[in-house]
Write a structure and sequence with these properties.
Strand 7 and strand 8 form a beta hairpin. Helix 8 crosses helix 13 and helix 11 crosses helix 12. Among the domains are: 167 residues, Domain of unknown function (DUF4445) (Nucleotidyltransferase, domain 5, 2-Layer Sandwich), CATH 3.30.420.480; 104 residues, no CATH class. It has 448 residues and is an alpha/beta fold. It is globular and about 65 Å long. The protein has a six-stranded mixed beta sheet, sandwiched between helices. The chain has a six-stranded mixed beta sheet with strand order 17-16-7-8-9-18, with helices on both faces.
Length: 448
Amino acid sequence: MSAKSSPSRGIRLKSSDPGRRFAVAFDVGTTTIAASLVDTGRGARVAMAGGLNPQREFGPDVLSRLEAACRSAENLQRMMRLVNGELQRLTGELLSTAGIRMEAVEKIAIAGNPAMEHFLLGLPVTSLAFPPYRPLFTSGRAINASTLGWDANVNAFVFPLPGGFVGGDLVAFLYGQGHGSWVMGHGISHPSPLTPHPSRLFLDLGTNGELALMAGGKIYATSAAAGPAFEGGNLSCGMAALPGAISGVEFTGDRVTVTVIGGESPIGVCGSGVITAVAGLLRSGILDCTGRLLRPTEISSNLANQVNEIDGETAFVLYRDAQRAVYLTQEDIRQVQLAKAAVRSGMEVLFERAGVPRDSLQEVILTGSFGSILPLESLKNVGIFSEKMVKIACFVREGALSGVENALCDSHGFEAVDRLATSIRVIPLSGNPAFEKHFLEQMNFPDS
């Protein structure tokens, strides 16, 4: 049974109903962690919580954390303690919100990219950090949370890892979109939205961008090291999609309007704000196709007043008040450029490997920790989507988390998840000449 979303603040449950059973779902991202409490009998989400991944003290991206874990066993153990401590804290927050006890939780399930799942389990990561970049396990792992250091005796399922840097989060995303039932022939109880053999592209844009192409009855997948720019990480004023983050930027003539999560004064900018800002700068002619921010003397509109030198670097100011300025620097824009080139090049490699022309796609399904539903036109403006892709694309909130919830609520869910993972053909990009060729081609933004 699929888990149906309810307001993220949660539903206060009556403690007088001891027969109801619950499960906790996690999507462990490199930058953020999303968690939800699910009533498995009704297939309904009853509470949701989230937070930053505390492993960020070892670096903002996967590679920096892999390097730290390879340097010492102590670093790896600390990463394990940090992430499991946060998962247990989020579980407590969910239970408190819903007004139930831990004894009512019968199971948990966790999905993440290969590095995050290895850190979670405290497994050595040498095989991921060096060629041939293989995870230590490919099937889902059934364990007890107590073995991870939790103060709870509850069964846990860690999602399978198809291979390379294609992880359990992509498997969860695909499963949540009905692909588990297509593979198994039964499985999830809600009708699958997928027709038998369509041509569909799935994109999970985050620090570890994961892509899957379904074509001719097969699934091809890859992972592009996009870096944290799509989630607002590692940027001058970047932040996760939390209250105070600019989640949208709109350019109207000489005026720049920002949308802020929680309606508060801006303190930073998250992924959706970054992408809409860059798209707006391109449309307004403040940013050229090579990714260069124009100097104020090159700009004929009043937007020239928002191009400043900040700490010796050219920057465009999105918002300023008496306390702070929120801006994008030239280097921030370069990070977005690299991320979009990596993702678009990964897409092109999948199209070529599957023998599918891009224009033959029937649907594009997008998810990610952006902070808001992205205007799809912005993805075209920065060069990730083509014109046709904009027309056939849809955005799915919490794609991986919803898939974890669905697996928890279905009696055959974990079997279907494992079967789905084995059906995925992983296409590595590291050292791939086709990827390197496309990456160079895709570095520039579209020339409007």
